Amino acid sequence: MILPLRSIALCCVAGMSLHTTARARLAEPAEEAGARSDELAEAEALYKRGRTSFETANYLEAIDLWTEAYGLVDDVPENAAIKAALIYNIAAAQEKAYGIDADIRHLRQAAVLMETYASNVPLLYGDGPEGTAELEKIQTRLAELRTRIAQAEAALPDPDPDPDPDPDPDPDPDPNPDPDPQPDPKAQPLIIAGAVTAGLGVAGLGLMAGGLAMGSSANDVDPEQSIDDRRAQFDRGRTGNVLAYVGGAAGGALLVTGAVLLGIGLKKRSAGTMAVAPWGGRGRAGVSLGGRF
Question: Is 156 exposed, middle or buried (0-12, 13-18, 19+ CB in 10 A)?
């Protein structure tokens, strides 16, 4: 079975030396916990090999070994300190690797890892003075890293601008250019007729809306009305219903017909521009027609 990972001596790197975190010190497993799992034993072996690589300035190998060890440690609360210590170690190795090959990516990765470690400090140390001191130390390391990143980025050479592509040679002029298409003389009457028809259609729909409102108001019966008043109100309702029916039928047909005529006219008169927009208000409706002929 998987045991709490208390037997691996995980250390954090500070400068050129290694120091043990408060919650990841070497400890013998409790007798009742049983034997250590193969994964934890392998993680411990990888950690020790990585420490040797780090101490001999083989930082890239240390990064690979500690990253592999990190993957072997179960992501459970009791292992949080161990995984955080490994993250710290990998960040320190990345920072050292920059001193070997001057690859700015090492510093950027180190900063990301330090931020991850800083986010785990309250979990590892609590809210007491020890946690506050550790967090202040990590924030100082992060500030130093960001300064080094800024300095390294400022020292990078400016990228070479892309060479201007060869301009395309001027195409040979067409000896027989096609003449500009002339608008169809039949287009203008179609456009005007379509606009007028569509305007009548919109007016018909406005009539329908007014009739519906008139018919609806006839349903509001006042108990104190006289019989003659009620009869007159019902007559207005019937009139409103007739207007709504006639306006809807005629308005819809006229609007569709006008739209078709406008479409044909505009297609024929491709050299001109026209804008047609319906408009309406309380008791009035129509279309606005604008263009260049």
Answer: exposed
Q: Measured between alpha carbons, how far is 66 from 46 in angstroms, rounded to an integer?
A: 7
Spatial separation of the C-alpha atoms in residues 190 and 136, rounded to whole Å: 81
Residue type, 239: T
Phi-psi region of 4 (alpha: psi -120 to 50; beta: other; left: phi over 0): beta
Query: What is the pTM assigned to this prediction?
Result: 0.47
Please report, as a single letter, which amino acid is at residue 166. D
CA nearest to 263, candidates 204, 193, 182: 193
Q: Is the dihedral of CA 84, 85, 86, 91 positive or negative?
A: positive
Single-letter residue type at 128 = G
Q: Count the neighbouring beta carbons within 10 Å of the beta carbon of residue 34.
A: 10
Give the residue among 256, 267, 258 at the shortest CA–CA distance from 187.
267
Q: What is the pLDDT of residues 164-193, one digit of tens each?
A: 666 565 656 666 666 655 666 666 776 787
